[in-house]
Write a structure and sequence with these properties.
The structure is a homodimer of 140-residue chains. With 140 residues, chain A is of the alpha+beta class. The first copy, chain A, contains three helices and ten strands. In chain A, helix 1 runs antiparallel to helix 3.
Chain lengths: 140, 140
């Protein structure tokens, strides 16, 4: 089977509030949007932000809770960029979970919750390559 | 800022149980593993399965709960493949959330929870291109 994920879908409560975080905080552009879902074309897959009630209907399971046991990471090219991205996210409705510092393996990272309490790690990890198209390769 | 996600990290309770689901159910190979984390190199980013207690420490936030308000999707090339992948996942410790059927926009999909209650949608969506390297492009 292909070692592949096609979509990450985040359940959200308010489309406009979430859209502001992703378009103004990260500066990302939607590839599609309507009143219940926004899709962003990412590096080899798609990010969706979907009204939680609609996600629960689609998944055939109610009672989704937050904060969920997961995080997403956006890696950048250096320490100063970590600080800058976190500042942008906080200005666009994010909430600081962890001010940036050095994790045990080295590098530099902090965590911000999006307006729906989904955790984003903003990290500089010099061992992981990121190419010009945003494709990320594991490294140690 | 690059429209890029570097890592999806799932909080898990039991490394061996989760490893079985991803390596036997999906048939994926780790690129790195130790006693608290397993990384899988995916299509342009990395999937991590990390002990929840370690994720909470790293994130500086306790009390992560499940099932979280998100889902991941693995798209395949046809209806029969959806059924086959779901069968593999159920054999490797997955729990059926939604038996496959046709969603409103067309195509075919079902949902399976991994052993830590994280939801996976297995989908055939003929509008979305998947290339030989697993890179997925949004389409309508």
């Amino acid at each position: 089977m292909q070692q592949q994920i096609s979509v990450i879908t985040l359940g959200i409560a308010d489309i406009a509030r979430s859209r502001r975080f992703y378009t103004e905080g990260f500066g990302w552009s939607p590839v599609f949007e309507n009143e219940e879902i926004i899709f962003y074309q990412m590096n080899g897959f798609v990010l969706g932000t979907f009204l939680q009630s609609s996600l629960e209907t689609d998944m055939n399971r109610g009672g989704l809770v937050r904060p969920g046991a997961f995080s997403l990471a956006h890696n950048v090219a250096g320490e100063k960029e970590v600080d800058a991205v976190i500042e942008c996210l906080l200005s666009a409705g994010g909430v600081l979970l962890r001010a940036p510092d050095e994790p045990p393996p080295g590098g530099y990272r902090g965590y911000v919750a999006d307006p729906d309490d989904h955790a984003w790690e903003i990290a500089w990890n010099p061992a992981w390559a990121i190419d010009a198209r945003g494709m990320v390769t594991f490294g140690v």
